[in-house]
Amino acid sequence: xxxxxxxxxxxxxxxxxxxxxxxxxxxxxxxxxxxxxxxxxxxxxxxxxxxxxxxxxxxxxxxxxxxxxxxxxxxxxxxxxxxxxxxx
Length: 88
Description:
The chain contains 3 helices and no strands. It is mostly helical.
C-alpha cells in the first residue's frame, strides 16, 4: 500500500487501544456494563488496525484479499456497540 495507509493504520490502532484503556478504567470506576462493551469494541478495533498493518506487509492473512476478514471484524465491532446501547 503506502506510507499514508501505514500511518493511518497506526493511528487507528493507537487511538483505539488508548480508548479501550480509558474505557476499562471507566468501567472499573463506574461498573456499568455498557462501558465494558464499548471498551471491548475499541479493543477489537485496535487489533483490527494492527492486523491491517500485518496483512499489508506480510502474507499471514488467510484471506485473499483481507477485506473479507476486515468486514467480519467490523461486524463484531458494530455488534459490541449495539450491545452497549441496549436498554437495561
